Amino acid sequence: MQALLSFDRAPPFGAPLRFFLTAPAFAVLAGLLLLWSGPDLFASRWTPEALALTHLLTAGFMLQTMLGALFQLLPVVAGANMVRPLFVARLVHVALTVGTLALVAGFLTYEPLAFRFAVLFLGAGATLFIAAAGHALHGIPATSPTIRGLRLALIGLAVTVAFGLLLAASLGWSLALPLAQLTDIHLGWGFVAWGCALLAAVGYVVVPMFQLTPSYPGWFGKHFARFVLGVAAVWTVADLAGWTLPSAVLSAAVVLCAAAFAVVTLSIQWRSKRAKLDPTQVYWRVAMFSALAACALWLAASAIPALAGWQGWPLLFAALLLLGGFMSVIVGMLYKIVPFLVWLHLQNLGRGRVLAPNMKKVLAETHMRKQMYAHFAAVVLFLGAVVWPQGLAYPAGAALVLANGWLVRNLLAALGVYRRHLVQIAAVLDVPLAGAL
Length: 437
What we know:
The protein has 14 helices and no strands. The chain has helices spanning 14-37, 48-78, 85-109, 112-137, 145-172, 179-211, 218-241, 244-269, 279-303, 305-308, 313-350, 359-362, 365-387, 389-429. It starts with 13 loop residues before the first helix and ends in an 8-residue tail after the last helix. The mean pLDDT is 93.
């Protein structure tokens, strides 16, 4: 059962848009960081540059887009209206942006004050959002897998942030904590119990809606998020308690949860009614295959000592999951969500007297497809740079800058269409619409 969509409850366009426009700028910074650091970044997952780049993509690109999407989806999909959404969005956006930059600066300099600022701003931004979203969802009946998934994904976000803040605090205040162990738990919750659970909750709506596929199986939507959070919670307890064998088994179960989502998603995408794949569908399919490859690599490293001893496998895993997986699917969703929001808000503002432009005119498919090829080139070059950093580190950095700079250009082009039509609507209706964004 899919959630009923209430487009009349959509927040102001500026609430999600500020996150969508900021996110690719962080990915551009990640490319510039790679150009600056060069092959040294790939020496280990623990190099300052690797940690900084990882958080530019996770706290910068991923978190910005995911929270921006939630500002839109909570009222439309779940009927959960935030109090003063534009005001909350402004505060959360500023806090996350400043906090992410402080965190990256902390990794590059290991200056304790930078980590303290990161804890303050990231903690404040995430806490404000979780509180606002939780308050909006309170009392909303769980009538669809999406609503249930959104609630559980918020729990995953809260745990992910809590472990992340604990790690940053340990560096800011020199706390004696098991950093490697806590980092693995932080990553497990962030990638699966938060990222994958949210992606599934959103996918229940956007995949059938935009890709013309059958709905996700009922059993999957009913149990997936609960199972993921349950397994992640038990694994965390086992790992912190030092139960080696149960921890190993449960960590593999967490990885298999992500693989299960990828397999189920691919299975319904094969049955799409579209005669020709558009860029969004290509992005999603590449993302699912990349996620499966990342899961296979993790399981192989757990079973093969020679692979586990290679310093590059965690970087290869991260590249498959972050660039090939999450970034691909997020860009694919942006190419549907942003043009749709432009159309929706212009249609509402036009009051039936000024028609909104067709979504394909908001953002031409040819521009999306060209940027998509640039993104895939960046992914391939980054994967290659893990194996051959001396030869491919700089091309990978340049490709990352190009692909995400192109994404910024495409999103700004859609915003330009919105602003030009605002002028037309204001002229026809003879009303000021300067505050419509």
